[in-house]
Write a structure and sequence with these properties.
By secondary structure, the protein is α+β, with helices and mostly antiparallel strands. It is 49% helix and 13% strand. The chain has a two-stranded antiparallel ribbon with strand order 1-2. The two termini are 19 Å apart.
């Protein structure tokens, strides 16, 4: 029997952090880090992986380590 390889995905806590940050909207975060609201939405739903620089900007904005905002998981 062949063993099925697990895929690795990038997860994030962006939505959770926005709500902990005075229920900040996607648009407010987008404007702060210089992207569109749709980009933030796509990151939160896992449809888009941010560049390293964008991921670092988001983590810095929330004053969190990168690993507290973004993480890898297997499925």
């Amino acid at each position: 029997m062949e063993k099925k390889l697990k895929q690795t995905f990038l997860g994030n806590n962006v939505r959770k952090l926005r709500f902990e940050h005075n229920e900040m909207s996607q648009l407010e975060l987008a404007n702060t880090v210089g992207v569109t609201r749709l980009t933030i939405h796509s990151i939160e739903t896992g449809k888009f992986n941010p560049s390293v620089s964008l991921a670092l900007k988001i983590a810095k904005f929330f004053n969190k380590a990168l690993e507290e905002v973004f993480f890898l998981y297997e499925k």
